[in-house]
Automatic annotation (TrEMBL):
Pfam families with a match to the protein in the record: LRR_8 (PF13855)
Organism whose genome encodes this protein: Sphenodon punctatus (Tuatara)
Keywords from the named record: Leucine-rich repeat, Repeat
Protein's gene: LRRC58
Phylogenetic classification of the source organism: Eukaryota, Metazoa, Chordata, Craniata, Vertebrata
Gene Ontology annotations for the cellular component aspect, listed alphabetically: cytoplasm
Keyword Repeat: yes
Protein name: Leucine rich repeat containing 58
TM segment ranges: none
Signal sequence range: none
Alphabetical list of InterPro entries matching this protein: Leu-rich_rpt, Leu-rich_rpt_typical-subtyp, LRR_dom_sf, LRR_domain-containing
Length: 362
């Protein structure tokens, strides 16, 4: 166990403690009001953090208990008033009682904790207590047993770094797009089949890691990620085989009427129509085909189109057209990964090289 005193020059250690006696006794004998970093990693801890830790090290800011075999952190964690970084990787956390009760409501830790790394543990779901840590800027839960991301993830408004790679996640909730400061999102090595178009609202996103998933296409809206510098897609079906799935259901009479009203700019007032029809008309989406100008509600053509991100890689992006007739005359030519359609060129013009500095496919 190494105790580092940040008031001394970098690398200066207060003591090296050998666990030949009781852990609590050893720590108590080396107590220091100046110690800011405590590393207990790569040692076997018999139980939760020992009582008295906060009293012995009141200035503690960084605590590393990675690889110690911990199955529970214990309530002593809540008494560390200045802790901003907790590293608890490669342990046995994940069962009932792994995290102390009242973690999110802790008056001191709830405000101070900024970095939390619980990768390499046994969490089957993202603990609800973590979603109350509103000051978190970095959260890592890679290589656990997660199957989903709860919509409540949007409560972590300060989050800048989210690592959930190496789990069993099958979908990305649209609520993830509500994180205004998220810059690095790692979802590699999961079972994700699609990317919600709402992710384009992550205007601060700089790096998106989606390699080794089950993606066959990307949403067209991903072009709106104006600050994205790195996009990792290797190990997905879209890289090794390009899938096109054109589907179209005939529009209902309600949709046909709605399309006519919107496309011909038929005037109406709120008093002319029932409330449900007014709400329906507000849901109209504009067809992205610049030659069409039509609208659609529920029925549309689902089409994949290849777009050049960096002048080297052509990726299939999903977009929606209001009907099969509004497709570009050259769209059939874009079935080949080496050909270009007129509409492809229009999308490529949107994407500047500096906006996609890295596209990692292989």
């Amino acid at each position: 166990i190494t105790l580092i005193d940040r008031s001394q020059p970098r690398g200066c250690t207060l003591a090296c403690i050998h666990l030949d006696g009781g852990l609590a006794a050893d720590l108590a004998s080396r107590r220091s009001a100046e110690t800011r970093r405590l590393v207990l990693s790569q040692r076997r801890l018999p139980g939760p953090l020992p009582p008295g830790l906060a009293r012995w090290f009141p200035a503690l800011e960084v605590l590393d208990v990675s690889g110690t075999g911990l199955a529970a952190l214990g309530s002593e964690l809540l008494s560390l008033p200045r802790l901003h970084t907790l590293l608890a990787k490669n342990n046995r956390l994940g069962g009932p009682g792994s995290l102390p009760k009242g973690l999110a409501e802790a008056p001191l830790l709830g405000r101070s904790l900024r970095v939390l790394n619980l990768s390499g543990n046994r969490f089957a779901e993202l603990p609800a207590a973590l979603l109350g840590l509103r000051g978190l800027q970095s959260l890592s839960l890679g290589s656990n047993r997660l199957h989903s991301i709860p919509p409540e993830i949007q409560e972590l408004r300060s989050l800048e770094f989210l690592y959930l790679g190496g789990n069993f996640i099958t979908s990305i909730p649209p609520e993830l797009a509500s994180l205004p400061s998220l810059s690095y999102l790692v979802l590699c090595d999961n079972k994700i089949q699609s990317v919600p178009p709402q992710l384009a609202q992550l205007h601060s996103l700089r790096s998106l890691s989606l390699h080794n998933n089950l993606l066959t296409y990307l949403p067209r809206e991903i072009l709106n990620l104006v600050h994205l510098e790195e996009l990792s897609l290797r190990g997905n079906p879209l890289v090794v085989r390009f899938v096109r799935d054109l589907t179209y259901n005939p529009p209902s009479l309600q949709e046909l009427a709605g399309r006519t009203i919107k496309s011909r700019n038929v005037s109406y007032t709120p008093g002319d129509l029932p409330g449900n029809l007014l709400r329906y008309l507000h849901l109209a989406s504009n067809c992205p085909n610049p030659k069409c100008g039509g609208v659609y509600f529920d029925s549309c053509v689902r089409q994949i189109k290849f777009v050049d991100f960096c002048g080297k890689y052509r990726l299939p992006l999903m977009h929606y057209l209001c009907s099969p007739e509004c497709s570009s005359p050259c769209s059939s030519a874009s079935q080949s990964s080496t050909s270009q359609s007129e509409s492809d060129s229009e999308d490529e013009a949107i994407v500047a090289a500096h906006r996609m500095q890295k596209v990692l496919l292989g």
